[in-house]
Design goal:
The structure is a homodimer. Chain A is an alpha/beta fold. Helices cover 53% and strands 11% of the residues of chain A. In chain A, helix 2 packs antiparallel against helix 6. At the A-B interface, helix 3, helix 14, helix 15 and helix 16 of A face helix 3, helix 14, helix 15 and helix 16 of B.
């Protein structure tokens, strides 16, 4: 394998703690360059040090500012910090106000931080897998905290957020009708809510609404809910379970925090909440189960990637499919019968267990 | 199979030309309800009548208006018309001005038209496959023209546009720096360019820029290109090939048309261009090769879908993966060795050739 020497050199520099080697390793993984599987396999036993913190929310919620403030705080505490930005509106990836960018660039100069933005090429589905792999590289490098910033609250962004040990959902009073964005999926992933820019009008209202949804507040009459026209409580699928388990004294209830990114107000409480949640994760065994979930997904990804590569790059299979096309066109066979025959042929030919490149 | 009778009833109504049965068939395919493969297999031999026309472009380009006008023209010519909208800003799918919606609703009442909007749940990659399958159902129903409207010019939208026999890219003078959106991928799929809202300032300039990019104009000095700071000619990967084949008298060069959706101006020329392109496709054998490409993709989708279902719903495999997790966590094995063992076990157990549900 011609890339062998290059991978060895990356691994040597990586083991010696060189950021340049880390950057190369991340690129090899992200671009799936030759040797990427060997690199990932070599790094695999080193996983497990880092705590992964996801920051998710709509554009303009101030995620980048909070990410920068968190990174600064962890660095000040002597930790090594990785930042992965999957957010086209983030200063880490491009679009941002000058002030955000300057602050981020200052943090980036610190020797104990490594910042990487993920290209949003290809589908977001693939991006979630790739983000997890990049986080694994940062973990193997010895990062204590990995901050993953993602924008939006759609399914694909939730898949990315789900990679983290702890997920914070960042909202602002003016981010549209914020309650509308708190769909079931968001409630599922949120270990912590942050109402950022909390000095602006509507912050208390938003906080109250979230707390009603979480079942932290009775909501009194219909007053705080009614003007949205939504039954806030019904939005939270975890709520009933939480209420049923109310006597369990080690149940995590997502706190709803207030921050002002511009001044740093509320940051100590946010950091303390994340620490408390990480401690809870360890104590309750949830940290381990989240890690197992990631390993399970990783195995599945590798299996699917190999099948994909072996099947569709196989010249014999390509030729066979081409030979079926005329009969398919004439409607004499269907895509289903052709697919089934292809599977049988591939199994018989040993295609699925071919040697990896 | 409990869904058997239901599928038979849908097929009967379908064969009799009932729109309600078509609607049910589309839903069964789109939601992958029980029996959807049998339905698709039964319809497969009926494919091939429809010509599929894609309309792609940035939001606000007036795609829905042009789609409606095309549908009206084809209906007036006695054709049966299907419309598939994969566009969250379209009146077919929801967000639209009242005027657009009224016109579309009037068209929708015509007995020879069927309109379907695609839910954008899941990834756009899956959406492209699903759009192709829905178009197949409309084709099997006997539609003469299928209009597929997609918004945006990203990779995923291009995948959807690529499903069509003929693709029109719709632009407007004010759609940002329109030339910037004409990336290599767009140039590849565009069989026809339409400058809509051509009564607005900048229409001639946009048309000129596209023609320079297509090599239809020398571009004289640097004048029309220079203010963009881009070498327009370099953006077009097909251009050299086209110039090399300049003496081939059956080469298709995408026309650049002007329309005003609000008044219908330019529509006869647009319709004539689409007809000319469809005739060119048939004459040159390109129609057949585009269909073969769709069949190839369809076989691939079915194979991957079956593998996915058989592997990850197999209880034995699930249990085996769970049993590997502790060693994976301890770093004694890697995701790669586990994946390889899983593939070998699945082949041995006949998982890949399991009977479809």
């Amino acid at each position: 394998m011609s890339g062998g020497g290059a991978i060895e050199r990356v691994l040597e520099g990586f083991a010696a703690g060189h950021k340049a080697s880390l950057a190369r390793a991340v690129s090899i993984i992200e671009d799936q360059r030759e040797g990427h599987e060997r690199l990932a396999a070599t790094l695999h036993p080193k996983l497990g040090r880092a705590r992964r913190i996801g920051l998710t929310g709509p554009p303009g919620a101030g995620k980048s500012t909070l990410t920068t403030l968190l990174a600064e705080a962890y660095l000040a505490a002597g930790m090594k910090v990785g930042v992965v930005a999957v957010d086209p509106t983030s200063p880490f990836t491009g679009g941002a106000l000058l002030g955000d960018r300057v602050r981020m660039e200052r943090v980036a100069l610190h020797p104990n931080v490594f910042i990487r933005s993920m290209a949003t090429r290809g589908s977001l589905g693939g991006l979630a897998s790739m983000t997890r792999e990049v986080c694994d590289v940062l973990d193997a490098f010895g990062m204590d905290r990995i901050l993953v910033e993602t924008v939006g609250v759609g399914q694909s962004e939730l898949d990315i957020a789900r990679l983290a040990d702890t997920s914070a959902v960042i909202l602002v009073p003016e981010s549209g009708d914020a309650i509308q964005t708190l769909k079931a999926g968001v409630m599922e992933i949120a270990d912590c809510f942050v109402v950022n820019k909390a000095d602006r009008p509507g912050a208390d209202r938003l906080r109250n609404d979230i707390e009603v949804m979480l079942g932290l507040r009775g909501g009194g009459g219909a007053a705080p809910d009614a003007h949205h026209g939504i039954d806030l409580k019904a939005l939270n699928p975890k709520r009933q379970a939480r209420e049923a388990a109310a006597r369990d004294d080690d149940q995590w209830t997502p706190p709803v925090l207030r921050t002002i990114g511009a001044t740093g107000e509320g940051m100590p409480e946010f950091i303390a909440s994340l620490d408390r949640h990480l401690a809870y994760l360890e104590r309750s065994g949830t940290l381990q189960s989240r890690r197992r979930e990631r390993l399970r997904d990783r195995v599945r990804d590798v299996v699917e990637h190999r099948i994909h590569r072996r099947l569709w790059r196989d010249e014999g299979i390509q030729q066979w499919v081409e030979a079926q096309l005329p009969a398919l066109e004439r409607g004499e066979v269907t895509p289903f019968t052709v697919a089934e025959a292809l599977l049988a042929r591939s199994v018989a030919a040993g295609t699925f267990t071919g040697s990896p490149t």
